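ingest -> validate -> predict -> emit
validate: passed (alphabet ok, no gaps, 151 aa)
predict: started
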Amino acid sequence: MAKEDSGIPIGTDALGQKRDWVSVREACEYLDVSEQTIFRWLKEGRLTYFKVGDSTRFKKEDLDVMVKKFTGDKDAEKYGAKCVSCGNSQLIPGQIAGTGKVYFKPLKTKFFVLAESVVNIEARTCPKCGFVQIFADTEKLNKLTKTKKEE
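emit:
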């Protein structure tokens, strides 16, 4: 847990009790960014905040939203082999069935695509917790959807 200069963990008071709010300085320490960055995010409307009198306060959950995770290929393979809910390494492959085959259809696709704009999906279920993970054919999905460069 991150600590303030005083040695007290961020988000706790002097008695060690958990607080619902953190200050601007504590938010900077928690996210390891400058006050300028915090105030820029406030001005841009990217960060949720609360006013208590003249003081600006944040909830840790709102600060956590600012952290983005980028999954690499190796991590993606690892997540496909483990239950994301309980971490169990045994997943049972199967299909999600309905009255017909279930597909994923992106809302926005490239204008001219000579392929059908549905993406096959695969399902795996954890026998330990029952969590169902759905995986799409990412190769076909990437062919169908626009990249940032194309927009």
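The chain has two domains: 1-68, 73-144.
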